[in-house]
Amino acid sequence: MSHDHSAIEKGNMRILVIEDDTDTAAYLSKGLSESGHMVQTAHDGKDGLFMALEESFDVMIIDRMLPGLDGLAIIRTLRASQNSTPALILSALGEVDDRVEGLRAGGDDYLVKPFAFSELLARLEVLVRRSDSETAQTALKVGNLEMDLLTRKVSRAGQTIELQPREFRLLEYLLRHSGQVVTRTMLLENVWDYNFDPQTNVIDVHISRLRGKIDKDFEKPLLHTVRGAGYVVREDV
């Protein structure tokens, strides 16, 4: 994607709406078109999946309950085929477990019906902006620690470091925010997809493991704990 923030500034996002309720679909299509965006609509899961795979969109709005193929199955299928187009899930189900299930399936955001159109639009813009900034980078580096986002290889001072998928995501998030203090809440929401604190030491365990791999055998530590605040990856001069 080369459109950076221009797609948002010009108001011409390409949006796929997969929604079986004709009134909701028409409401979304009308509102988004009036906001200057290009909208295509599918009324069942199979058509929606086909359109999502065949064409390029900036963002998708996917209803959770759909005939043919439900919204979460669509997102899982897209993610399995390396399609990373941001997806906002619409649902009448608003319980925490439902939201977590939607985010775990590969959804990027979750909005419960009924919703305010202005909030929907703001959330879409955030998703596209985030997608643009993430797509632009192919490598992350702090000091002599390097992460290649294309090959998913991590090395420090030329030595390859083997990371588990969750450790990779954790380090990627810390590197994208290098020099900034990252809170536990930020990590839970962005690395574990929890929008609540499950009261476990899951973060501490992973931070400890990660530190053992990227810092233990090297001269200077890069992963620091900021007491009472969170964690930061930075090179101390």
Please explain how this structure is put together.
This protein folds into two domains: 6-135, Response regulator (Rossmann fold); 139-233, Arc Repressor Mutant, subunit A, CATH 1.10.10. The chain has 237 residues and is α/β, with parallel strands linked by helices. α2 (22-34) links the parallel β1 (14-18) and β2. The longest helix is centred in the middle third of the chain and has 20 residues, at 117-136. It has helices spanning 6-9, 22-34, 45-54, 71-80, 96-104, 117-136, 165-176, 184-190, 202-214, and strands at 14-18, 38-42, 59-63, 87-91, 109-112, 139-142, 145-148, 153-156, 159-161, 223-226, 230-233. It has nine helices and eleven strands. The strands form three sheets. Strands 2-1-3-4-5 form a five-stranded parallel β-sheet, with helices on both faces. The protein has a four-stranded antiparallel β-sheet with strand order 6-7-8-9, with helices on one face. It has a two-stranded antiparallel ribbon with strand order 10-11. α3 runs parallel beside α4 (71-80). The model is unreliable at 1-10 (pLDDT under 50).
Topology:
Blueprint lengths: L5 H4 L4 E5 L3 H13 L3 E5 L2 H10 L4 E5 L7 H10 L6 E5 L4 H9 L4 E4 L4 H20 L2 E4 L2 E4 L4 E4 L2 E3 L3 H12 L7 H7 L11 H13 L8 E4 L3 E4 L4
Parallel strand pairs: 1-2, 1-3, 3-4, 4-5
Antiparallel strand pairs: 6-7, 7-8, 8-9, 10-11
Query: How can the largest sheet be summarized?
Result: 5 strands, parallel
Q: Write down the domain tally.
A: 2
Query: Any idea what the shape is?
Result: elongated
Question: Rg from C-alpha positions?
Answer: 20 Å
Class by SSE composition: alpha/beta
N- to C-terminal distance: 36 Å
Strand content: 15-25%
Which spans of ≥5 residues are poorly predicted at pLDDT below 50?
1-10
Number of strands: 11
Instruction: Please report the first level of CATH classification, the CATH class of the largest domain.
Output: Alpha Beta
CATH topology of the largest domain: Rossmann fold
Q: How many helical stretches?
A: 9
- In CATH terms, what is the architecture of the largest domain? 3-Layer(aba) Sandwich
